[in-house]
């Protein structure tokens, strides 16, 4: 028997704000909301969603896990600008400047990357 990925769980201080941000970034919708969790996904039958759970502490160190996002047809630079306008910010985690990705952080400081367009999971 095998398991499959159901949710990526992200601790958040403001569940609703984080859910709205990520729903806009991914063009998903809020599927369920309560004071204990908010779930976003492409739709109710999507294979994977993001679940935001309450946390009282602030994020203070670099993530041990982050999301890599592939840009749409407008390209990486356009997506970076769109996501910055939604409330993300650029962050420096030691990049050299020659990477094929751009590192951003969501409104609560969780790092994620916008990659160069690609159609495969391997380099």
Automatic annotation (TrEMBL):
Residues 4-117 form the VOC domain. InterPro entries: Glyas_Bleomycin-R_OHBP_Dase, Glyoxalase_6, VOC_core. PROSITE patterns: VOC. It comes from the Bacteria. This is VOC family protein. It comes from Kribbella capetownensis.
